[in-house]
């Protein structure tokens, strides 16, 4: 019923920038919190950024000041602008959202997009 599709990943040099996008599609009534997570090889998935439906944001210290999350509610899309990228940012980045379909709200995940930071 609902799909989240990420795009924008790739290979970038240290200090570079990337912008990820995640578009939600399906029979959507409303989208609440939207977030980006990442998972590096051998590590647990971790929260990178979260944005509420009202636009409030939160970040872990590891990316604060370098990453910016934003959303376009008209397009059901969330973005992640990543600046000053470091090799430690290399991971698969996943989109996550709480989506209401009819009277039911569920949590959905995208399939992920690879971000590699290397010279």
Features:
119 residues; four-stranded antiparallel beta sheet; seven-stranded mixed beta sheet; 59% strand; elongated; mainly beta
Overall 3D form: elongated
Share of residues in helices: under 10%
Mean pLDDT: 97
| Broad structural category | mainly beta
The number of helical runs is 0
Low-confidence spans: none
Q: Strand portion, in percent? A: over 45%
**Radius of gyration over all CA atoms, rounded:** 14 Å
Describe this entry's structure for a reader.
This protein is mostly beta strands. Helix content is 0%, strand content 59%. The chain has strands at residues 2-7, 10-12, 18-26, 30-39, 46-51, 57-58, 67-72, 77-82, 91-101, 104-109, 113-117. The strands form two sheets. Strands 2, 4, 5, 6, 9, 10 and 11 form a seven-stranded mixed β-sheet that branches. A four-stranded antiparallel β-sheet has the order 1-3-8-7, with no helix packed on it. A hairpin with a 5-residue loop joins strand 5 and strand 6. It starts with a strand and ends with a strand. The model has no long low-confidence stretch (mean pLDDT 97).
Secondary-structure topology with pairs:
Blueprint: E1 2-7, E2 10-12, E3 18-26, E4 30-39, E5 46-51, E6 57-58, E7 67-72, E8 77-82, E9 91-101, E10 104-109, E11 113-117
Parallel strand pairs: 2-11
Antiparallel strand pairs: 1-3, 3-8, 4-5, 4-9, 5-6, 7-8, 9-10, 9-11
